[in-house]
From TrEMBL:
It is found in: Peroxisome. PANTHER family: ENOYL-COA DELTA ISOMERASE 2, PTHR43684. CDD domains: crotonase-like. InterPro entries: ClpP/crotonase-like_dom_sf, ECH/Chromodomain_protein, Enoyl-CoA_hydra/iso. The lineage of its organism: Bacteria, Bacillati, Actinomycetota, Actinomycetes, Mycobacteriales. This is Enoyl-CoA hydratase-related protein. Gene3D superfamilies: 2-enoyl-CoA Hydratase, Chain A, domain 1. Keywords: Isomerase, Peroxisome. Its main location: other. Pfam families: ECH_1.
Amino acid sequence: MTTHADILEVHDADRVRTLTMNRPDALNAFNGALYTELARALHAADGDPDVAVVLLTGRGRAFSAGTDLVEMAELVADGGDTRASTEEHGFNLLVDALIAFGKPLVAAVNGLGLGIGVTLLGYVDLAFAAQGARFKCPFTSLGVAPEAASSYLIPRLVGHQNAAWVLLSSEWISAEEAHEMGLVWRLCAPEELMTEATAHATRLAALPVSSLRAVKKAMTEPIGRQVAEARQRENRMFAELLGGPANSEALAAFAEGRKPDFTSLPDGA
């Protein structure tokens, strides 16, 4: 069965549900609608007895370019911090859905992964990446804080010093570097990515869902409190920084097509 939504494609085969983010012209950047649709799709898959595994990927040359900066700029202009403070905002709905998802979640990173496009990897159980994919956590270059417990989950995946560089520097990380540090599990030739990821997802999907759920719960339940606490810390920091001098300069530079200049900002900005 294949169905098509405007921004999220859903395909079912062999008890694997493939969710394809479909905003290729925007590099699959997450606007409120995509956050909400992916959250709904995860809830639906978790409750569907015909689905054992979910495979997440992107359409086009990007996995996801992160949060839609056009929408972020509009949010800042309106004077609100909806994303960090409102549970019903699509961003928080997606994070809640990722935490609650009880079946194996596999990612096939087909290209660029920025921001939430990297943060998602902290919630998946297996991550495959195409050779040539690149990763970036641009929080400091946007003048904001980490998100969705990434300050806790990414160090668990890659170790403290690798995570410190990824989160502090806003520098690009190659697919090979991501694989070496443990951010992704397997590297694949681009033309083999979906075949390889689907094959592994299908092998898992042939196993009893009750056991798959039990294994995942046993692995993730012990870190639930730490994830919740990390989200609270990050949301508080994000709310303090959003719309501040550094974030305003970053968004203005993005709109004007120039490199931001943070050197003249006061300490603490």
